[in-house]
Design goal:
Layout (H helix, E strand, L loop, with lengths): L2 E4 L6 E4 L34 E4 L4 E7 L13 E4 L2 E4 L4 E6 L12 H18 L7 E8 L7 E7 L4 H17 L3 H12 L3 E5 L2 E4 L10 E5 L11 H22 L4 E6 L11 E6 L4 E2 L2 E4 L3 H9 L1
The structure holds zinc ion (ZN).
The site of zinc ion has 6 residues, from loops.
């Protein structure tokens, strides 16, 4: 059955088109560890280290500057108008978190490594939040791409991305209209319905969202209110690392090497609201005429992933 669904958090429309073939799967380019700039032994080529977590004998997680950063911390903050145009100076930070010394997928490594990697991410967000020039900080991980060194990127920026301001406006509108938090309603409804829920552990729930933009999209979110990932408890960060590891592992099995992007959604720094969560998006997006086309309804994706 053809169906259009709207994402209550962003307002984006998605068309569910069961039977439509998946886009051609992208496979990781075999690199091997040879010549990898992120493996132990190549540390001097990665620029001045920003932070490191020590492991047994060597480092366990390192944070380094992005080689060609989109934004730089040393730029003077400022905003200018040119007629109808708006310009903001490219002040920010662009960092790479090398999530393990081991050159294989993070989900295939011990759980302690996944937890350490996410704790370092949280520490970077907390540290960068102290810089008053930044309006928002993002974290993304590219998982899959079987042969890539596991790493994530942190970007602190002087503006708030449109999708996030839109999500904030929608959550505020929902609260004003119903007196309830949008994400709590979403979590409560999904728990009750059950068809799209993958698992719930220690206060973290994984589900295929009602209006999944891409096949096998998964959201990982706390069952209790919490706007900022930087402010999340150690227990929730550990549980989120465990659930993400399970999700990434299941997607790798089911999607056979398709790369997967994990995005953190968290509040902009100076306007709290919403709920922090991760959106796990396999690189299988198809779109036409401004709406996404998804051949795998989330109810079906959840059935497959729960197996
Ligand atoms: Zn490597």
């Amino acid at each position: 059955m053809r169906e259009l669904r709207r994402d209550p958090t962003t307002g984006d429309w998605v068309a569910l088109v069961p039977g439509r073939p998946l886009p051609r799967r992208e496979r990781g380019v075999p690199l091997g560890a040879e010549g990898c700039p992120f493996c132990p032994g190549a540390e001097e080529h990665t620029g001045a280290e920003i932070s490191r977590r020590q492991g047994a004998g060597s480092w366990s997680v390192r944070v380094i500057p992005e080689q060609s950063p989109a934004l730089r911390p040393e730029v003077q903050a400022g905003r200018r108008g040119f007629g109808p145009y708006d310009q903001v100076a490219g002040v920010g930070a662009h960092e790479v978190i090398v999530e393990s010394p081991e050159h294989r997928p993070l989900w295939d490594q011990p759980l302690t490594q996944s937890i350490a990697a996410l704790e370092v991410a949280q520490a970077r967000l907390r540290d960068l939040a102290r810089d008053g020039r930044f309006a928002h900080i993002t974290w993304t991980r590219s998982a899959g791409g079987c042969c890539e060194h596991p790493r994530a990127r942190v970007v602190a920026m002087p503006v708030v991305p449109r999708a996030l301001s839109e999500a904030q406006a929608r959550a505020a509108e929902w609260l004003a209209r119903t007196g309830r938090e949008l994400f709590q309603d979403l979590v409560d409804y999904e728990r009750e319905d059950g068809r799209r829920v993958l698992l719930e552990e220690d206060g973290i729930i994984a589900l295929c969202p009602w209006s999944s933009r891409v096949p096998f999209e998964v959201w990982v979110l706390p069952a209790e209110p919490g706007a900022s990932f930087a402010g999340a408890s150690q227990r929730l960060v550990g549980a989120a690392a465990r659930v993400l590891r399970w999700v990434e592992g299941r997607l790798a099995q089911e999607l056979d090497g398709v790369s997967v992007q994990v995005q953190l959604w968290t509040e902009p720094l100076r306007s709290p609201g919403g709920r922090w969560h991760f959106r796990v998006l396999p690189a299988l997006e198809q779109a036409e005429g401004g709406i996404s086309l998804n051949p795998v309804p989330p109810e079906e994706a959840a059935r497959v992933l729960r197996r």
